[in-house]
Amino acid sequence: xxxxxxxxxxxxxxxxxxxxxxxxxxxxxxxxxxxxxxxxxxxxxxxxxxxxxxxxxxxxxxxxxxxxxxxxxxxxxxxxxxxxxxxxxxxxxxxxxxxxxxxxxxxxxxxxxxxxxxxxxxxxxxxxxxxxxxxxxxxxxxxxxxxxxxxxxxxxxxxxxxxxxxxxxxxxxxxxxxxxxxxxxxxxxxxxxxxxxxxxxxxxxxxxxxxxxxxxxxxxxxxxxxxxxxxxxxxxxxxxxxxxxxxxxxxxxxxxxxxxxxx
Length: 263
Known about the structure:
35% helix
């Protein structure tokens, strides 16, 4: 059995409807969101589309879920012993065009790359340097960015990844570091230091397109975004980075842009 697993805090229905509806058009398997601070109408939307909700006791503000989700995912995965493959995903900025497991390579951990190096991106290099120092940044500055918003693999592999991420998060919190997007720096540090078994998939070459640094966009006549080889990419991530494409995907740009919520 496959598992699509994410986290969601503070969102109104219009902010995640594109995620929910597109996921269920492409994937009828087990989907779970660890949740906090959701209004009743958002809970009803998730129930309508058979997305299981597991409420977690996250502290305010909702942005805390960005860092704390890794430790929250661990007991979920531990309890689901019949799951074989897992796809960890963001929610607000993700749109599905297909089943992510159809293009997920066989391997314990699968990370998805962006079209830029860590050192060339001020945000990503800053997250590494502020958490691990300039020496660590120099070591991995030439490596491609891997986005923490989408990660896949086997149940055992993802459990190991979550354990590594969870330990690092707790260490950061112990040092008073709690930036909403701090998990991105941790993810790249862990990927390039502790996960030699990881399969890294270039952007526009597999299950995920991460669009922040994407240089080129290709569509078919059905307005589906394509990989380099012409295949329909199952998962579009960071769709808010190119808002001009939202209408092509059938997403209401005004509703999508509404503030609030996390992950």
